[in-house]
């Protein structure tokens, strides 16, 4: 298939799932089954561990370096797990040689904001105990992409050094849902609309104050690590990514924004099926690797 045929096939598969939410338990089970049915990147092996007092999936590539990658999964802070995050994490591990950790941070509504941020910061603190900050990479998708930026802000506020670089895929950076694309891209997005996003907000950050506090789009981003932002042009979170990149640039952060035409939310998850996804992950891996010191295979 050519690229457009690949995009059409992915869009059709996503649209078949619909935009209506079930119960929290149904959404968790369905998402877990869907993502974990996809294999990890070729050659990457996984085992269970812990990080920052939370479960984590550790991922290793054959050509391992001293680099460590912390990956924060998507799922609107309500669904997803270390296992669902492992697929995209493994793709970055394969491209960087890092030892990856996909973190099982606490989910809402049982643990609303700021539970996820606290867990991400605890995991990052533990990594710093054994790894220099310059050898650490951070990445995440969707809510996990927003959580990556929230982590970088929290680390700066705690007086911790920034990692070498960060990459976020379709970041959910504004839980107040003020981006124009939430309405203008609703017909194009096969996965989400405003009602679907609000379902997650009500569970993670139900008050107006909490929703704003949980939104890194409104944070002071000065002093953060170099940041890569990738987003699909056909998704309601397009403006989250664009405004996040603009705010980072305004705060003197080194930032690269890539918007893929005709592509849906976290299209990178479809690597091996979608050439656009493979290319985007190649660029993400190169972005992260370029900001590392010279590594030595072990």
UniProtKB/TrEMBL annotation:
<protein>
    <submittedName>
        <fullName>Acetyl esterase/lipase</fullName>
    </submittedName>
</protein>
<dbReference type="InterPro" id="IPR033140">
    <property type="entry name" value="Lipase_GDXG_put_SER_AS"/>
</dbReference>
<feature type="domain" description="Alpha/beta hydrolase fold-3">
    <location>
        <begin position="69"/>
        <end position="268"/>
    </location>
</feature>
<dbReference type="InterPro" id="IPR029058">
    <property type="entry name" value="AB_hydrolase_fold"/>
</dbReference>
<comment type="similarity">
    <text>Belongs to the 'GDXG' lipolytic enzyme family.</text>
</comment>
<dbReference type="InterPro" id="IPR050300">
    <property type="entry name" value="GDXG_lipolytic_enzyme"/>
</dbReference>
<dbReference type="GO" id="GO:0004806">
    <property type="term" value="F:triacylglycerol lipase activity"/>
</dbReference>
<keyword id="KW-0378">Hydrolase</keyword>
<dbReference type="InterPro" id="IPR002168">
    <property type="entry name" value="Lipase_GDXG_HIS_AS"/>
</dbReference>
<feature type="active site">
    <location>
        <position position="142"/>
    </location>
</feature>
<dbReference type="Pfam" id="PF07859">
    <property type="entry name" value="Abhydrolase_3"/>
</dbReference>
<dbReference type="InterPro" id="IPR013094">
    <property type="entry name" value="AB_hydrolase_3"/>
</dbReference>
